[in-house]
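Crash report, auto-generated. Payload:
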Amino acid sequence: MSGEREPGNGGRARLWERLKAGLNRTHARLVEQLGGSLEAGEPFDEEARARLEEALLGADLGLATTELLLERLEERSARARGAAPLRDLLVEEVAALLEEIPAPPEEGPGPRVTLVVGVNGVGKTTSIAKLAARELGAGRRVLLAAGDTFRAAAIEQLALWGERLGVGVIRQAAGSDPAAVVYDAIQAARARRADHLIVDTAGRLHNKEHLMNELAKIRRVVDREAAGWACRTLLVLDATTGQNALSQAREFLRVARVDGVLLAKLDGTAKGGMVLAIGRELGLPVLYLGVGEQPEDLVDFRPRDFAAALLE
Amino acid sequence: MFDGLQGKFQQIFRQLRGEGRVGEEHLRAALREIRLALLEADVHFRVVKRFLERVEAQALGEDVLQGLNPAQQVIRIVRDELVALLGEEGRELQLSGQPAVVLLCGLQGSGKTTTAGKLARRLAARRRYPLLVAGDLQRAAAVEQLVQVGARVEVPVLTPETGEGVVALGARALRYARDRGHDVVLIDTAGRLHVDAALMAELQALAEAVKPCETLFVADAMTGQDAVRSAEEFARALAVTGVLLTKLDGDARGGAALSVRSVTGLPIRFVGLGEKPDDLELFQPDRMASRILGLGDVLTLIERAEQSVDAAEAERLASRMARQEFTLEDLRDQLRQLRRIGPLQSVVDLLPKGGAMGKVEVGDAEERRLKRIEAMIDSMTLAERRNPTLLNGSRKKRVARGSGTSVQEINQLLKQYLAMRKMVKSMQGKSWLKRALKRR
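Recovered output after restart:
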């Protein structure tokens, strides 16, 4: 990774600032779009509606979610009678929508395994490095499994991260059966008394049946071999992805029982608004946000903060 | 996926058929569906807006409703407009310079390294002698990845030396290529955010040093509304010569292609269709348009129909239908037109899959049946064809003998014909049909 970037010595609060800075790059444009909607007392008329609709569509919320939010906003603004700017009301509605998504159950003590899945190029391996760094910071023993045996140098990429972080990486030769790697890794995690095994998988487009079957097999191996452990599947989504994210989430959920989403690449200008539709339609919560390329650039998802940063 | 817009269109225009004329209201309904389709395909909302304005202007104009099916007509206008906006077909790499330099740039994870391998393979197939340059010094093991990709496509890879920056590497690559006789240098670069000023400046410095004849912006087909921003910024920073759209083997509709094209004006050159070195094709605007609209190849079918259907014939038929004079002769002519489009199976194969259709197998039986119907009608006298009520028992026997069929089959044909004629009658007074006829 780049050495000349900001050194990663800041705390969580600073990361939120960073996320906001990223989202704020679009802020100016958003404000421009929202225009008069920022003023208190502005009526929710056709013009305001059109402006807000564009802002929401532009943030990749999709038409269905956008219309739902505008409907709710309309009711709300009728009740509020212009007491607050429409934008503030909209932020509240976005947050409310996010809060309706059921949170995942609390993780108990004992060993855990996290299967990290997603389509090609969303940032799975970098996200794994971030998760591992966070677990190390919490004093847990981490082990990584190089389950992407397909893409050129994917194993090397994870191994390099393992070296940097001082974390063991269970690997086999390129081209070997990923389910076998996972099997080995679980035995190794047990032998080494690791607290958390994080499994990398090959990027796969969700419409490729054979690759999805392979993933289902990996998940079965995890369930069988790590019985009694807390097992979860984390879906990594790219914030720049549009409506297709819903299709991805649906298929990965079906095949690998996804428990939550890690939304990566939020340090650009994309806002990842598709997570609202994913939460609403599939009940999948966002757990983490990726806000940079450094191991510490990972923040917990907080609905209110996300909504505020989105529309601030 | 494919039955979405198609199905909705048919609903809208079924209502329309009931009312007998295309009002603005119907067009509005159609435009709403098109808007939904485009937004679901991730076309940027501003681009959608402009697009709909153009379509509306055209569809309300003179040229609408020429053909027999208004739903298909509107889809056609939309598709044609979309094809026009998507620009020209993709062009191969235009190489100049000794060596010619091709630079790949884009966001993280867009698929630059995989693409570099594909382009190298393509160049080698054109009897070029390419050199791959591992210019991604940011991501862990990116250099190693290109080394492996290069080995797979049997193209040498130049890797950075310890401490060497990407600009120095680029300059060295040119010297290296000249020494070894490489005529093309393909430079992979690190994925970077368009808002990362430092890395964008680095890319500019690299371009300055190596003077690429082609700079391709590699973009993920699944990109949403942000596609416009990133493409704009890359095009502003560099003399980008084209766009390469990756991961089109997924199920994303790829509206980003339209957004990027209409905002930057950059031509889309190639599409990536898989992870293997050969999964790269030249961009085809018509296919992309159908994909964005979720239409399958039904438009190819419409086109083929238009090409093979004799316009004069169609006019004669339509005018007869308008006067409710749909005879067996007309039926035969229609069947002939249908068969001119191509074998039935190929026609059915072009229809959108999924939905109620599923995979339809048209056996030889159906094909043969059409031929038999033609034969039956051919065996009738002119008077019988125009007035089938003349067909009594003995006439039917004669026709059956003449066409090598049976009286039973003839009865079946007559029954179907009467049903069709009834349908034609119910279309009486439909102004769209009359207007269509006048315009032909």
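Post-recovery validation: Chain A is about 50% helix and 15% strand.
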